[in-house]
Write a structure and sequence with these properties.
heterodimer, A: 434 Repressor (Amino-terminal Domain), two-stranded antiparallel ribbon, about 5% strand, B: mainly alpha
C-alpha cells in the first residue's frame, strides 16, 4: 500500500515527530509507514488521515505496493 | 542431588534482572509513545520466528540423543533457552532497525546474515556439547558478528 504522508506532511510543514505526537505513535512508526515498510491498522490510518484533514483514500493508495 | 547455588543464582538472578530490564525498557518506551501497534507487530513477529528456531534446536538436540550422545538435562534446557531468547532478541532487533531505517535492508543480505548466525551457532553449540568444552561458544562470536553486520547493512540508494 502506497501513501502520500510525506507530501502531505511537507505541505503542512509538519515533522515526523509532530505527526507522531498528533496520532499518538512513535516517530519510528511514522518512518516505517511513510517508507511503506509497515501498513497501519485501519484505526491508525484513520487518525493519520484526520491529522491532514483528509479521508483515508486521499492519504493511502490501496492495491499498490510501497517503496520497499 | 545437591542444590547448585550458582545455578540458582544464575536462574533466578537472570530472571529478576531480565524482568527489571523489560519493565524499565517499557517505561522508557511509553514516555516516547513507543508501545504502539508497530512495537506489538515487531515483537509478535520476532516471538513467532524465535519459536521456529527453538523447534529447530529441539530437533537438533533430539538427533544428538538419537545418535547416542549423552546430554545433561541442564545443558539441553540451557541450549533451548539460549536459542529461544537469542533468536527472539536478535530478530526483534533486526526488525526494529529495519523499520527505523530510511534506506531499506536488502532481503538477500538479511537472509545471508541470518544463515551465517544460525549455522555458526549450530556448529559451535554441537562442538561444545560433543567435546564438553564450552569455550567453543566464544569462537562463534566473530562469525555471528559478521552475520549481524551483513544482515543490518542497508541497501545503497543507487542500487535497484
Amino acid at each position: 500500500m502506497r501513501n502520500r504522508i510525506k507530501d502531505l506532511r511537507k505541505a503542512k510543514k509538519m515533522t515526523q515527530e509532530d505527526l507522531a505526537k498528533q496520532v499518538g505513535v512513535s516517530r519510528q512508526s511514522i518512518i516505517a509507514i511513510e517508507s511503506g515498510k509497515y501498513n497501519p491498522s485501519i484505526e491508525l490510518a484513520y487518525n493519520i488521515s484526520k491529522a491532514f484533514d483528509s479521508i483515508i483514500e486521499e492519504v493511502f493508495i490501496f492495491g499498490e505496493r510501497g517503496e520497499e | 542431588m545437591g542444590v547448585q547455588i550458582g545455578g540458582l543464582i544464575g536462574l533466578y538472578g537472570g530472571a529478576v534482572f531480565g524482568i527489571l530490564g523489560w519493565w524499565f525498557g517499557r517505561r522508557m518506551a511509553k514516555k516516547q509513545r513507543g508501545l504502539d501497534e508497530l512495537h506489538s507487530h515487531i515483537w509478535q513477529k520476532s516471538r513467532s520466528i524465535s519459536w521456529f528456531c527453538t523447534l529447530a534446536a529441539i530437533y537438533v538436540l533430539f538427533s544428538l540423543v538419537a545418535f547416542g550422545i549423552k546430554l545433561k538435562v541442564a545443558m539441553v534446557l540451557g541450549v533451548i533457552m539460549i536459542v529461544h531468547m537469542a533468536s527472539w532478541g536478535i530478530t526483534g532487533m533486526i526488525l526494529s532497525i529495519n523499520m527505523n531505517m530510511t534506506e531499506p535492508l536488502k532481503p538477500s543480505r538479511v537472509k545471508f546474515g541470518i544463515s551465517i548466525v544460525a549455522m555458526s551457532l549450530f556448529i559451535f553449540i554441537i562442538l561444545s556439547i560433543t567435546t564438553g568444552n564450552w569455550w567453543f561458544l566464544i569462537a562463534s562470536i566473530p562469525p555471528n558478528t559478521i552475520g549481524l553486520i551483513s544482515a543490518l547493512t542497508p541497501e545503497r540508494s543507487g542500487e535497484d
